Amino acid sequence: xxxxxxxxxxxxxxxxxxxxxxxxxxxxxxxxxxxxxxxxxxxxxxxxxxxxxxxxxxxxxxxxxxxxxxxxxxxxxxxxxxxxxxxxxxxxxxxxxxxxxxxxxxxxxxxxxxxxxxxxxxxxxxxxxxxxxxxxxxxxxxxxxxxxxxxxxxxxxxxxxxxxxxxxxxxxxxxxxxxxxxxxxxxxxxxxxxxxxxxxxxxxxxxxxxxxxxxxxxxxxxxxxxxxxxxxxxxxxxxxxxxxxxxxxxxxxxxxxxxxxxxxxxxxxxxxxxxxxxxxxxxxxxxxxxxxxxxxxxxxxxxxxxxxxxx
Length: 311
Ligand code: CP
Ligand code: NVA
Fold this sequence. Notes:
By secondary structure, the protein is α/β, with parallel strands linked by helices.
């Protein structure tokens, strides 16, 4: 296992292609040996803190289980329970956390909080979802694509929906791996320009294609991988009605839209899914869906990540 060049993970952009491949390779090993979990106790004596401003099912469960299975401990910190909620600064909180534990996973509203934590923590900080990025999810997504497609070569991924945190990091991750990208995103919901610039640059380096279109069929036609996510991310609840009227029904991944993808295409969704909104049950429960492999792979890639950062 190679040690990572950066001792933090704020976005998939922080990882080199070699590091992503290495993390996935080891995650595949962890998955193969999942019945012999207790034999690898490489994180014995290590403690991971999870500081969450937002709810989570998968991220919290998979990190806690990963640490437990590798012999380490976890401490879950709901940020409302910390002195942070009474005005203690991020800087002082970061310095305090660094005195006790070996690594921090943070799920925050503003990405600036992640950057401030990285700046002030003396331990590795992992972004467990911010308004801009979701790198751990994208490691699992790339692992799932490789598992089902055997290689990243000659693949086209279609993103359908909101240009949100998952989309941002997925586009960067796919561009880095040389996957062609067609994203169907409504006007005014595209990723920020600085992210589009990174995706364009990475795609050019790999000679792969990157386009943003408005028509979902144009993106999904002949795609190998189709991905969507909620239209109303955590923190966007006030825009609920406006977003639903923009995205539904046009950007919904339903059976008809999926029929334009290749016969052996796969469907990914980071979950939680709002069935009947961004995706219909026939798709998420259908034969192209690999969402449960994707969810399981969160555990394996995060073991790989934790072992790289702390092992
Ligand atoms: N995909 C994901 O991060 O799920 P949770 O919000 O449940 O952690
Ligand atoms: N885009 C979603 C992802 C949840 C895992 C959100 O931010 O709520």
